């Protein structure tokens, strides 16, 4: 395997990443639907505002966004959304220099508006929004996080051997995957994971039922996995827009069945379903915890950065310091105890 071949492979991978990063930011998602906006307003108490950032007298380029405002008028991330609802629509130019100039102009307008309004907590920009400088130039603290994204239908050839083995294992064990409207079944699986990992969801089964009622099966793809005896042991909920992005929203599995391969089978079947309904991309919605990132990487999707902006840079620095010191402590402990 010569250096020339390696460079060719590296450039090919890089071109795929750049293609996905550019295209994903142009795509719409369920987050832009009137139905989703109404649902989010109802369950969070926030007020939505559709905004467009463009140069005077020009339709394109434009940044389209839906901002959620709290009672003080500040921007706030609703617990229903993984990202700020925003997308970039350039002109038809293919020149990178012109695309950059168009992006820089409208991104600056957006960053200035965010600073003017103010925000609460942390704002998470969507994948493809990987240029943090419009915020940094305003003195706003930013960070980079990551997710995995793939074009649909996904390529089975890119799957790690372990994923294929788990899918075959779950199939042989007789697990059955079904789409469902029963949000009680979905929530019970979410609770199993939340209890094991010691966290609490900000939603309950009534919030899920309202989502199913407002979005219906057209956009909400809820799947459950049953054992051969009919016991529901795993569930996932995805928000899929035909012609747009499918967002990995919720997932939960009974820990007793975590090594059965049922998770992999459930993902495989559900991704096939949303692909058949016309979604163009799938977003794993985060790969920032080491164990989670390792598991998600086995699907062969493209690692994609996104930007996070913080309200309190000192608090953010303290959090980073705590994490760093914790890692150092764990390393020292391992060295000391062999």
What's a concise summary of this model?
With 338 residues, this protein is α+β, with helices and mostly antiparallel strands. The protein contains 10 helices and 13 strands. The strands form 3 sheets. Strands 6-13-7-12-11-10-9-8 form an 8-stranded mixed β-sheet, sandwiched between helices. A 3-stranded antiparallel β-sheet has the order 1-2-4. It has a two-stranded parallel ribbon with strand order 3-5.
Describe the structure.
The chain is α+β, with helices and mostly antiparallel strands. 43% of the residues lie in helices and 24% in strands. The chain has helices at 3-24, 34-44, 96-117, 133-136, 161-172, 183-197, 205-215, 262-276, 290-297, 313-336; strands at 47-54, 62-69, 75-76, 85-89, 119-120, 122-124, 141-151, 176-179, 220-226, 232-240, 245-253, 281-283, 302-310. It starts with a helix and ends with a helix.
Report, as a whole number of angstroms, the end-to-end distance. Answer: 38 Å
Note poorly predicted spans.
none
- Work out the number of β strands: 13
Percent range for β-strand residues? 15-25%
Per-chain topology:
Elements: H1 3-24, H2 34-44, E1 47-54, E2 62-69, E3 75-76, E4 85-89, H3 96-117, E5 119-120, E6 122-124, H4 133-136, E7 141-151, H5 161-172, E8 176-179, H6 183-197, H7 205-215, E9 220-226, E10 232-240, E11 245-253, H8 262-276, E12 281-283, H9 290-297, E13 302-310, H10 313-336
Parallel strand pairs: 3-5, 11-12
Antiparallel strand pairs: 1-2, 2-4, 6-13, 7-12, 7-13, 8-9, 9-10, 10-11
Helix pairs in contact: 2-7, 5-8, 6-7
